[in-house]
Amino acid sequence: xxxxxxxxxxxxxxxxxxxxxxxxxxxxxxxxxxxxxxxxxxxxxxxxxxxxxxxxxxxxxxxxxxxxxxxxxxxxxxxxxxxxxxxxxxxxxxxxxxxxxxxxxxxxxxxxxxxxxxxxxxxxxxxxxxxxxxxxxxxxxxxxxxxx
Length: 148
Prior knowledge:
47% strand; 7 strands; alpha+beta; 2 helices; globular
């Protein structure tokens, strides 16, 4: 079983600034409380092939996650796929950015979650929690970018 959740927000910053903040990847702990730490390889600017490795905490349990950038089109589009092996993975995800006015940017984030093994039983719970949190997640992205 798999399913998608998404969040949208409007950020009071120009699209180039928002894209740079999100493309850095290492800013995720500023808006995602589940991300405890994150690193990027190789060093340097994010591009197709860049891998982000993180430690996340879900439902009181820590897990290691690895995401590879699959599309990178400044300042509008970033796509990733999870390459780590966990019971629930984000097989596909990304950001879509649009300029919505003078110095404002619309942001859409989405992830397609898929269950593997026992995760097939858990993915529904994970999706429910992610969908419920989506409006707050969008607000956290907005707050983090505008505070940077």
